[in-house]
Amino acid sequence: MKIVRAHSLGFCSGVRRALKLALEAAAEGPPLYLLGELVHNGRVSQKLKALGATVLDEASIERIAKGSLVVIRSHGVAPDLVARLERAQARIIDATCPKVRANQKAAAAYAKEGYTVVVAGDRGHGEALGVAAHAPGSVIVSNPDEAAALEANGPLALIAQTTLSRQEYVAIRANLARQHPALKECGGICAATADRQEALLSLCEQVDAIIVIGGANSSNSRRLAELARAQGKPCWLVEDPEDMPIALAAYARIGLTAGASTPDEDIDAAERVLERLSVKREKE
After folding, report:
1. Do 37 and 73 belong to one domain?
2. For 159, which DSSP code?
């Protein structure tokens, strides 16, 4: 078995920054709160929990002690939640990804100019909800059909969730533009997301099957798995490297990639497990 890594995989700079901020805050000692899951990776969440971090329920903001450290997740949050933290006199550590922050600012600016902001993204995803909350009257569309059915008066501005696939974005944009030719396109997809998807497409040409290491609730990890399957490759999304499917032993060349919220140590661990499977296959 040959194991081939994608040339772009794992932590993006925004996630790396968010984790660095959270770890520095944890070093100050409890109480430390995370306003939502810092990143969509269960193993990262377990690490932070072991260091004393607690996920703060939004309904409990007003009950935290004055001066409590609260880390805003990398996906960002709605402005009203920040205002509530300020009124509670929390010490806010804003770990919002800079790209997400830029999308929030763009959404707010276009809404102020009279545009209806359309956020292309997963309807229940924290990032999409947070960006939409910066633009009163905004709408989230999750697929091309919803875009085609959208009824809106006045000018529209389209902003993408950073982890959306390029294919999804193009299809949503095309359907919106048919009904609204003056659509203002603002982009929004993170370069790291695009890089990992392009690297996966290249990887698919070199291997027989794909493993994506990432959280089951990670949007970008799921999209990598979907993209691999769309290329006709057997693909598994695995959060814990020790849960690697034994079926992989049947393939000669395995491609390894990982979502932007997957730590380096998990990628290395996954490669070691695959190497063990390879040795087992050779012995058999």
Report:
1. yes
2. E
Catalytic-residue membership of 284 = no
Residue 19 belongs to domain spanning: 13-96
Main-chain phi, psi angles of 169, to 5 degrees: -60, -45
User: How many Cα neighbours within 13 Å face the side chain of 12?
Assistant: 27
What is the reported pTM? 0.88
- Residue 280: per-residue pLDDT: 63
Tokens 């309904």, located at residue: 59
Last residue of a domain, one of 96, 128, 158: 96
Contact assessment for residue 10 and residue 16, using Cβ atoms and an 8 Å cutoff: no
> CA nearest 200: which of 168, 165, 247, 241?
165
d(CA 98, CA 32): 22
Q: Which of 100, 53, 45, 96 is nearest to 74 (CA)?
A: 96
* Model confidence at 155: pLDDT above 90: yes
In angstroms, the CA 190 to CA 72 distance is 19
Catalytic one among 127, 168, 205, 239?
A: 127
